[in-house]
Amino acid sequence: MGIRAFIEGWPVYRQLTGTDPLGRGAAAQSGRSARLTARTEGADTVARSVCPYCAVGCGQRVFVTDGRVTQIEGDPDSPISRGRLCPKGSASRSLVTSPLRQTTVRYRRPYATEWEDLELDVALDMIADRILAAREQTWEDVDSEGRPLNRTLGISSLGGATLDNEENYLIKKLFTAMGALQIENQARI
Amino acid sequence: MAEAHPVGFQWVMEAKRRGAKVFHVDPRFTRTSAVADTYLPIRAGTDIALLGGVVNHILENELDFREYVLSYTNAATIVSERFVDAEDGDGFFSGFDPETGSYVQDSWQYAGHESDSGSGHTAQERDSAAGLRHESHGAQVHGETLRDETLQHPRCVYQILKRHFARYTPEMVERVCGIPREKFLELARAWTENSGRERTGCLIYSVGWTQHSVGVQYIRTGAIIQLLLGNMGRPGGGILALRGHASIQGSTDIPTLFNLLPGYLPMPHHADHPTFDAWVDSIRHPGQKGFWGNARAFGASLLKAYWGDAATPENDFCYGHLPRLTGDHGTYQQVLNMIDGKVKGYFLLGQNPAVGSAHGRAQRLGMANLDWLVVRDLFMIESATFWQNGPEVATGEIVPEQCRTEVFFLPAASYVEKEGTFTQTQRLVQWREKAVDPPGDARSELWFFYHLGRRLREKLAGSDQPRDRALLDLAWDYPTHGPHAEPSAEAVLREINGYDVTTGRLLSSFAEAKDDGSTAIGCWIYSGVYADGVNQAARRRSRHEQDWVAAEWGWAWPANRRILYNRASADPQGRPWSERKRYVWWDPDAGEWTGYDVPDFERTKPPTYRPPKGAAGPEGIAGDDAFVMQGDGKGWLYAPSGVLDGPLPTHFEPAESPMRNPLYGQQANPTRKVYAHPVNSVNPSPPQEHSQVFPYVFTVSRLTEHHTAGAMSRTVRPLAELQPEMFVEVSPELAAEAGLTHLGWAHLISGRAVIEAKVLVTDRLTPLRVDGRVIHQLWLPYHFGFEGLVTGDSANDLFGITLDPNVLIQESKIGTCDVRPGRRPTGPALRDLVADYQRRAGIIPGRTPPMVTVRRPAGQADEGPGEHADA
Ligand code: SF4
């Protein structure tokens, strides 16, 4: 390192001669932090997204590298949030990458004391069979005066406020066609 | 707001910087109070008394925005001479039927319209939560109304309002709410000063307001103030509901709710809607004014989207396939039915009722008595493990070896692992791009329900059972992609938007809906979200590149309109009320409405337009009728129908209160929904005996760092670290009275449960002097449960089940309890303690408290059979 580079590397010199007289920014930066790059800079892709917590609807940018979410930040373009996120929105990456997330199907037999594993495809098939059985057992064609009912009160569902509109649409459409009308979500709670 | 909707709160701070005064009303001093100009602690459950005080202040001093009120509200409309106000009925309006605990609304109607109230009797409307239908439009009234433009007629709405609220004086506010009258007057003055041509004021509430047995009437009172002050439909005005979940607005619009179909069309009722025509007419009310005239096209287009080619005009578009309501099928009725063994299977889709719903024990006992339960979530939540780790396992009420519920836990894809739209709290629909694939077996709900439907249809193929027709006829062909055959969310959004059945052209607005089967529309109010074949919800034009309305960021229903009823932002002649408050106005040269937003009015209907006599539908709306979805074109200060518990808000005590109602003999909302079930109970309130067994009031709300039932926050490290423990906040005075120590333990007892929490002694809570006595309030967060990184007892376990009559939402913002130092008992001793309190309080589980607490409700000719509890 030459003498000039040495002096220029000295924070006080940079503070006095540079654009940062208060020494809070560039002047105080160490060589190590100058060499650091943000996770967001090298991201392969960025998805425009929306915070999954409350209904303010803050804009998010989801940074992805090698098929993994590396960072989630506020979207500065959003007229709602202007790039800001609260503690929950800021924790979104920890939410989606949490080691506590379940990634396999779990099954508890009646009267069992433990969980077991189950193939997703088998689970789907078992659930379909149980829906058909519940309809069989509890189906109501007509009321006492012969007016149509076309329904089962043997099936209930709760949830939707954390889901997408498209998902809620399919849920309601399918349940309605099944004759299941006891469909509810957080909007009732 | 700073706690629960922090980023939204930046706009309040922005307004404050520009000179707005911020008032914060809350039982507890929060981060919002800290930056407000004035903080008003309030006795929980008394908001109608406070807001009624503001209404009285406006009317007593004639501070209403008279020009707005005369033109845009029903202030001048004359009401039936048969109407008797609650002021003259000790808390009851005319028409109360003690047999069903509900009203017959005929006498509430406008003069000459006494037979217009639809079913007349509201008991059935309560069971189907019919009030929710009005979310997209007002209730209806027929034809022409009698008016007195001088507002002097004793039966005009203005005078009725004035008499109704005359006793809501500053002294009464102090007596009921515990708010000193000077502080109240400071609020009332600031609010009324922000009114008129140059100024507007804004009312913001969080949806805890809905969690009361009079929740809808809280909001009604706010609406009355905002209409009187001319704050609706104008920039800087309005009533802003801060909803709590990313897409809870969307899940109401495109509902997963028992009583609604998409776009607030009602689920058919077995007795009222036997045919497609009867169903349609019950929505559009033939002959009425306003924009519901097209209900037939919306209904036909929905059924066409559901049943595709099978739906034809000849078979009423498969209307016969729809299941029918017979009464209350809401979530609380369902849970009680589970306990009674009537429900076989239960799906939980990103929801955790074991922690998040009122009366957690009832929720868990219900789930323990199913044939099968499907839980779809990111995490192993309490509602999936109640049979193994729940509090009832500890008390011996649930024994795993004897619990027959078969549980399927299916991991869900997170919001970054799928694409689709959320609708946030201002009706803004925003598309999310997919970032990564979901891990392992995790799948979207779109995947799960599409493939479940496919499988059901395969299994039923060839069935000749009539009940299987609806599944087999279903239009269920969605394009899929990727290794897991993920259905296309864009294809579903296009169906929601609607299309021309023959050409496939996407519709640009619901005005294109047809009733002949040539259009299919999944949710008519969302029509336009895919206008011009473009996903409008995916628009992300930077805020720096457009004006402050930001119309090109996402898409708002209806028609990308950002402020509803914005015709009211111009004066009756169509001119902006002032330069400052210019928003939407009539351009006489162009002959059309114009402005910053999409006008909420027929574009070319001039302000001078007057409807021909007897005109119906949109034609009946005059050029200065700003509230175009209302049958009379007016904002309703007084609601002749649509609200089941009264045309005007009236202060009632919560279902559980330590106080006698200071305003009326009737203690609590007489129309509230109660359930006489052995698992349920209500703590006694005056005039019942033994209310002193539960002497304290508790209320619950959110922490910034946690989210509802905790499934998305107690599982996330940074958030769990920030708020690691269940706690209860108490005032120093209450701590001294109850022997509680800071950072020590306390347990709280209600008639349902005992829970424990760490004690935080803080002057964020203050004892209130109310009606000559001191009321102590405790505050709890409701996020905790027994799973996750941080655990604790659930506050919602303390609540019983009592619902608002309009929308069947539970009263879970207020209850009564006792508090004791130390930890709670464990094992069976815990239930013994509850039983002991029940015995001392005279609670007999399964028996509901007396609903009527006066001798004779108004409108009753003789001694009604209502229970009398003054003894
Ligand atoms: S970042 Fe915070 S305020 Fe914004 S949507 Fe998410 S939870 Fe709500």
Automatic annotation (TrEMBL), chain A:
<dbReference type="GO" id="GO:0016491">
    <property type="term" value="F:oxidoreductase activity"/>
</dbReference>
<dbReference type="InterPro" id="IPR006963">
    <property type="entry name" value="Mopterin_OxRdtase_4Fe-4S_dom"/>
</dbReference>
<dbReference type="Pfam" id="PF04879">
    <property type="entry name" value="Molybdop_Fe4S4"/>
</dbReference>
<keyword id="KW-0411">Iron-sulfur</keyword>
<dbReference type="GO" id="GO:0009055">
    <property type="term" value="F:electron transfer activity"/>
</dbReference>
<keyword id="KW-0004">4Fe-4S</keyword>
<dbReference type="GO" id="GO:0030151">
    <property type="term" value="F:molybdenum ion binding"/>
</dbReference>
<keyword id="KW-0560">Oxidoreductase</keyword>
<keyword id="KW-0479">Metal-binding</keyword>
<comment type="similarity">
    <text>Belongs to the prokaryotic molybdopterin-containing oxidoreductase family.</text>
</comment>
<dbReference type="GO" id="GO:0030313">
    <property type="term" value="C:cell envelope"/>
</dbReference>
<protein>
    <submittedName>
        <fullName>Formate dehydrogenase major subunit</fullName>
    </submittedName>
</protein>
<keyword id="KW-0408">Iron</keyword>
<dbReference type="GO" id="GO:0051539">
    <property type="term" value="F:4 iron, 4 sulfur cluster binding"/>
</dbReference>
<dbReference type="GO" id="GO:0009061">
    <property type="term" value="P:anaerobic respiration"/>
</dbReference>
<feature type="domain" description="4Fe-4S Mo/W bis-MGD-type">
    <location>
        <begin position="44"/>
        <end position="100"/>
    </location>
</feature>
UniProtKB/TrEMBL annotation, chain B:
<keyword id="KW-0479">Metal-binding</keyword>
<keyword id="KW-0411">Iron-sulfur</keyword>
<dbReference type="GO" id="GO:0030313">
    <property type="term" value="C:cell envelope"/>
</dbReference>
<dbReference type="GO" id="GO:0016491">
    <property type="term" value="F:oxidoreductase activity"/>
</dbReference>
<dbReference type="InterPro" id="IPR009010">
    <property type="entry name" value="Asp_de-COase-like_dom_sf"/>
</dbReference>
<dbReference type="Pfam" id="PF00384">
    <property type="entry name" value="Molybdopterin"/>
</dbReference>
<keyword id="KW-0560">Oxidoreductase</keyword>
<feature type="region of interest" description="Disordered">
    <location>
        <begin position="846"/>
        <end position="871"/>
    </location>
</feature>
<dbReference type="InterPro" id="IPR006656">
    <property type="entry name" value="Mopterin_OxRdtase"/>
</dbReference>
<feature type="domain" description="Molybdopterin oxidoreductase">
    <location>
        <begin position="3"/>
        <end position="380"/>
    </location>
</feature>
<keyword id="KW-0408">Iron</keyword>
<dbReference type="GO" id="GO:0009055">
    <property type="term" value="F:electron transfer activity"/>
</dbReference>
<comment type="similarity">
    <text>Belongs to the prokaryotic molybdopterin-containing oxidoreductase family.</text>
</comment>
<feature type="region of interest" description="Disordered">
    <location>
        <begin position="112"/>
        <end position="138"/>
    </location>
</feature>
<protein>
    <submittedName>
        <fullName>Formate dehydrogenase major subunit</fullName>
    </submittedName>
</protein>
<feature type="compositionally biased region" description="Basic and acidic residues">
    <location>
        <begin position="123"/>
        <end position="137"/>
    </location>
</feature>
<dbReference type="GO" id="GO:0030151">
    <property type="term" value="F:molybdenum ion binding"/>
</dbReference>
<dbReference type="Pfam" id="PF01568">
    <property type="entry name" value="Molydop_binding"/>
</dbReference>
<dbReference type="GO" id="GO:0051539">
    <property type="term" value="F:4 iron, 4 sulfur cluster binding"/>
</dbReference>
<dbReference type="GO" id="GO:0009061">
    <property type="term" value="P:anaerobic respiration"/>
</dbReference>
<feature type="domain" description="Molybdopterin dinucleotide-binding">
    <location>
        <begin position="701"/>
        <end position="805"/>
    </location>
</feature>
<keyword id="KW-0004">4Fe-4S</keyword>
